[in-house]
Amino acid sequence: MSRTLGASGPTVSPLGLGLAALGRPGYITLGHGKDLGGDRSVEAMERQAHEVLDAAYRSGIRYLDAARSYGRAEQFLSSWLASRGVRPGEVVVGSKWGYTYTADWRVEAERHEVKDHSLPTLRRQWEESRALLGSWLRLYQVHSATFESGVLDDTSVLEELGKLRDSGVRVGLTLSGPRQAEVLRRALDIRIGGSPLFSCVQATWNLLERSAGPALAEAHAAGWGVIIKEAVANGRLTGRNEDPGLRPLREVAEGLGVGVDAVAIAAVLARPWVSVVLSGATTVEQLQDNLRALEVKLGDEAWEQLQSLVETPETYWAKRSALPWN
Questions:
Q1: Crossing angle for the helix pair 155-166 and 119-133, nearest 10 degrees?
Q2: Contact between residue 293 and residue 266 where contact means Cβ atoms under 8 Å apart
């Protein structure tokens, strides 16, 4: 069931593990606080991250996703890789630069992260990521590239990323917000030294927010790797969300004998342009539920039932921005 991260990329598993909710005590996923229990110390969270990483590896997951802003996610991943004796060629690790974690290990922080796409931040965070992840780090991405940040027009940053590309590291970008497709199409045209700069994109596509689909298909056709995040919409497409509007999803899931999260992830896996879908599981049980998506096949009738879930991009991103840190 393996896939490749783009036309010439490394082999990856169809399901990857994202560490956004495992590397810091506060996150915006519904019910995240309950998943961590009462002990949110660094040591307890590192143990929990290692338990989930162990389960992921045993289950065949070979793509692991982190970021400088995910609290201590890179540190937890680094200690797991070293302690388990995982060789660089056995997994593909991706990380990101552009946000700095500022919550100081607190859930009730005024600001959890600060965005800065400047050249000094790129150079600093690349060295920080490389110091922790070394030769395991195969993909380095601009974290949440937007027109507003100006990162795609900053020649000094693009040239520095070109040097990383030329050194053998794959360079990509992640997207967020209602203009994902526009930003991606801009990135597809960027060339440094006569060659495309980027070769991978990580974007949101799920049963609620599907607007980036055509642009992601274009990226796939251009040979890029396509990684999908937020397949369960930060918990909105799980059993924790009792929204009556999710009734069609619940009915499909009941008919298939799986959880609604498995149906939501299976819907993304079915897209022909997808390389990897990230699980954001915080517990081993959640990961096992997510893995059931690999067994799910959605027929035409199920797809028809799920059409009613679609929201406009503006609605989706407004609801996402209102989710509380917990």
A1: 20
A2: yes
CB atoms within 10 A of CB 267: 25
Residues in contact with 220: Cβ distance below 8 Å, sequence separation at least 6, in sequence order: 226, 272, 273, 274, 275
pTM higher than 0.85: yes
Q: What is the mean pLDDT of residues 33-52?
A: 95
Average pLDDT over every residue of 109-121: 96
Query: In this predicted model, what pLDDT tens digit does every residue of 200-209 receive, in sequence order?
Result: 999 999 999 9
> Token pair for residue 105?
């290990």
Q: For 231-247, how does the pLDDT look when each residue is reduced to its tens digit (9 = 90+)?
A: 999 999 999 999 999 99
* Residues found in the chain: 326
Rounded CA Rg of the chain: 19
Rounded Cα gap, residues 89 and 168, in angstroms: 14
Q: What class is the 13-321 domain?
A: alpha beta
319 φψ region: left (φ > 0), alpha (ψ -120 to 50), beta (else): alpha
